[in-house]
Design brief:
- The protein has five helices and twelve strands.
- By secondary structure, the protein is an alpha+beta fold.
- The strands form four sheets. Strands 1-2-12-9 form a four-stranded antiparallel sheet. It has a four-stranded antiparallel sheet with strand order 3-8-4-6, covered by helices on one side.
- β1 and β2 form a beta hairpin.
- α1 crosses α5.
């Protein structure tokens, strides 16, 4: 199994996964979305709210604000030494006290831990008019997207099969397939249609080029055929900023390995063949 990156930074990764089954590719995708923990606001104490929003609406908006997460510092409440009571090792406290006229932004939240700030300072929470107030205390905890979407570390996480475009010698360069391709992947070069350099991965496998080729009267079989590699996938993963995308991938792969080891252990116990 191999991973080859075409681009990688803290927030976005594009890579090709080769030598994996469809089940593993989808399991990897699901692990990145739902099994990598992040911080998100879970409990909100509202001491004063004279805004136009109900308390529940404010709490919902606060929960959706992505928070920078250091997984080496925080643990889930279940694994924390405090036993889930809430301490600086498993919980971050935010305070907010604002009076209008003002648009309350995520940057107005004051964190107990300066390293656990909102990813973006300009996320609007509520607009206050003159005389309106908002005083709250919020607690962020570590959890996963399996529990609630607000803990998902990704904005985009998906994959598709790697496309294969085959152009036979029957091609007469009529260019009907070129005109039909919605993504500009094909071009006429000399007396034959070819794939534009660097554009193969943009193919959506819509097969409009095949239909256009057949409509040209070439015969019963198109000169261009579109298929997919059986064990090669193109991934796009975008982080919400709470974690670097490379760490999201790394944590997801460790999760899959740990789950596999646990499954192997349990099967060994059932069969009486437990590994020493």
């Amino acid at each position: 199994m191999e991973i080859e990156f075409s681009s990688l930074d803290d927030t976005l990764a594009r890579f090709t996964l080769t030598g994996a089954s469809p089940a593993f590719a989808n399991g990897f995708r699901r692990a990145m979305i739902g099994e990598v923990p992040t911080l998100a606001i879970e409990d909100v104490r509202i001491y004063d709210n004279t805004s136009a929003f109900f308390d529940e609406m404010l709490a919902h908006r606060l929960g959706l604000i992505p928070i920078k997460t250091d997984l080496s510092t925080y643990s889930t409440k279940e694994k924390c030494s405090c036993g889930g009571a809430g301490c600086p090792g498993c919980m971050v406290t935010f305070t907010l006290s604002v009076e209008g006229p003002k648009t309350v932004l995520s940057g107005d939240l004051i964190p107990q831990d300066p390293n656990a700030t909102p990813v973006y300072d300009n996320i609007p929470i509520v607009k206050l008019t003159k005389g309106q107030k908002l005083v709250i205390e919020a607690h962020a905890i570590l959890n996963t997207g399996r529990e609630h979407a607000k803990w998902q570390p990704t904005l985009v996480c998906g994959f598709k099969n790697h496309p294969v475009i085959f152009i036979s010698e029957a091609c007469d360069a009529c260019a009907m397939c070129v005109d039909e391709c919605p993504r500009g992947i094909l071009a006429v070069r000399g007396k034959k249609v070819e794939v534009v350099d660097g554009k193969l991965t943009d193919c959506s496998m819509c097969k409009l080029c095949e239909k256009a080729c057949l409509s040209s009267g070439i015969g019963d079989e198109p000169a261009i055929t579109i298929s997919a590699e059986a064990d090669q996938y193109i991934f796009v993963v975008e982080s919400d900023g709470s974690l670097p995308v490379k760490e999201i991938m790394d944590r997801a792969l460790h999760y899959i390995r740990d789950q596999s080891d646990e499954l192997e252990r349990q099967i060994g116990e059932i069969s009486g063949d437990e590994k020493k």
